[in-house]
Amino acid sequence: MHPSIQYIHDHGELLRDEHVACDELGKLTDPVADAIRASRGMRLLQSTSHGGFEADPKTFFEWVRSVGSYNASAGWVAGVVGVHPWEIALVEPALQDEIYGDDPDVWVASPYAPQGRAVPEGDGFRFSGRWQYSTGTDHCGWVVLGGIVVDESASHEGPPDMRHFFLPRGDYDIVEDSWQVMGLSGTGSKDIQIDGAFVPAYRTLRHGVLSEGGYGARRADAPIYQIPWGSMFCAAIAAATFGIAEGAITRYHDYVKTRVSAMGVVGKTDPFQQEALAEVEADLAAGITHVDAMIDAWLDQLHQGDPITPSQRLGFRRNQVRAVQRVLFGVDKLFSRSGSAAIWTTRPLERYWRDLRTAGTHISVVSDLIYNAWANDRFATGAKTMVMH
C-alpha cells in the first residue's frame, strides 16, 4: 500500500468525525485539509521534477476513494483538486516553477467551464469572468479557469479559442456564501470572480490541444501523461464517487446490523436488505476493477508507442459512466430498503446518500451525452461525434 493511502486509513477516524463539521462550515475544516495535505496524496500525479511521485493512476484513484470513504466532501476535493497536478505536469516549466517553487504541496482549484473572456494585451491577456463550482478553493493557492479569447468587443471569429488560464491566489476573488447545496456542502465549491486580471500567455493551455493530447510530447518519457486529459479527469471524478459510495455502504452495514423493523424483522437477516447490499457491493467492486483495467490497458498500449484513439476514449467514457451509474442506483436501493429511520439527518446514511446523489450530477458521470456520442461513433451514422472531454 502506498504511504499516502496508509496515512489516510491511519487518520480515517479524524476525517469521519469532521464530516458534519465540514458541511456546517461550508468547506473542509483545517484538520481535514491538514490531514489530506500531510498524506501527500495530492502529489501522486505531480511531476517528479516538482516534488511529485508520478505514481500509477490506479494508486491515485485508490487514495481518492479512501479519502471519500471516510469523508465525502474531502474525497470530492481529493479527486478534483488532486487531478490538477496531472495537467500542470504539461504546462511550461516556468509556470510549474511558479506554482510549486515555494510549496510543492500547494493546491490548485478549477473550474474549466469557459465562463471567462480574455482580450489579448501585450504578451498575454486581460481576463474577466465569474465561475461556479471551484471545489476546495479556500485551501488552494492557485486556480485554473476556462475562458475564450475574444476581441475588444467581446466577440470572436471562427471556432472559439478556448483556453485554460492559471492564476495565483492574489489575482482572483472567492465569492463567499455562493455554495448553498443539498450535498457535498463541505467541498466549499464557491464562485470565483475576476475583473481584468492580466494573465501571461505562458500561463495558458489551449483546451483543444490538451484534449487531443497535443501537450503530451512535453512529457513523452512518461506514459501517464499521454492518457487523454478528459479521461483522466473523469476517472478522478468516478474515483471520488466510488469512495463516497463505499462510505455509504459502510454506514448502511453499520446501521442494518442493529436495525429491527416495527414488524420485528432483524435487518441483517432480512433477505431484501441482504440482496440490496450484495448487489451494490458487487457493482462497486466491478466498477473499480473496470476503470482500473482500462487504465492498465492504455498504459500498456502507450508503452508500445500507440496513441489512444477517439473511439477508445468514447468507449472508456461509456464504461466509466455506466460503472458509476450502477453504483448510484445500487445505493438508492439500499436507502429505499433502510426504512424511514434512515432519513434522519442525525444519522450518517442520509448524509452520505445526499452527498452521493450530488456527486452523481457531475457531467463526468451522467450518461445521456456520452452514450449518444459513443453510439454515433460505433454505428458511423455520419452524425458529428464529439469526444466528451
How far the N terminus sits from the C terminus, by CA atoms, comes to 31 Å
Helix and strand string, N-terminal first? Answer: HHHHHHHEEEEEEEEHHHHHH
Helicity range:
40-55%
CATH topology of the largest domain: Butyryl-CoA Dehydrogenase, subunit A, domain 3
Largest sheet entry: 8 strands, mixed
Work out the strand percent.
5-15%
Supply the key terms.
eight-stranded mixed sheet; Butyryl-CoA Dehydrogenase, subunit A, domain 2; single chain; 8 strands; 13 helices
Summarize the structure.
This protein has 389 residues and is an alpha+beta fold. The chain folds into three domains: 3-100, Butyryl-Coa Dehydrogenase, subunit A, domain 1 (Orthogonal Bundle); 108-206, Butyryl-CoA Dehydrogenase, subunit A, domain 2 (Beta Barrel), CATH 2.40.110; 227-379, Butyryl-CoA Dehydrogenase, subunit A, domain 3, CATH 1.20.140.10.
Structure description:
The protein has 389 residues and is α+β, with helices and mostly antiparallel strands. It has three domains: 3-100, Butyryl-Coa Dehydrogenase, subunit A, domain 1 (Orthogonal Bundle); 108-206, Butyryl-CoA Dehydrogenase, subunit A, domain 2 (Beta Barrel); 227-379, Up-down Bundle (Butyryl-CoA Dehydrogenase, subunit A, domain 3), CATH 1.20.140.10. The chain is 49% helix and 13% strand. It is built from 13 helices and eight strands. Strands 1, 2, 3, 4, 5, 6, 7 and 8 form an eight-stranded mixed sheet that branches. β2 (116-121) and β3 (124-134) form a beta hairpin. The longest helix is centred in the C-terminal third of the chain and has 33 residues, at 271-303. The chain starts with a helix and ends in a 10-residue tail after the last helix. 47% of the residues are buried. The mean pLDDT is 92.
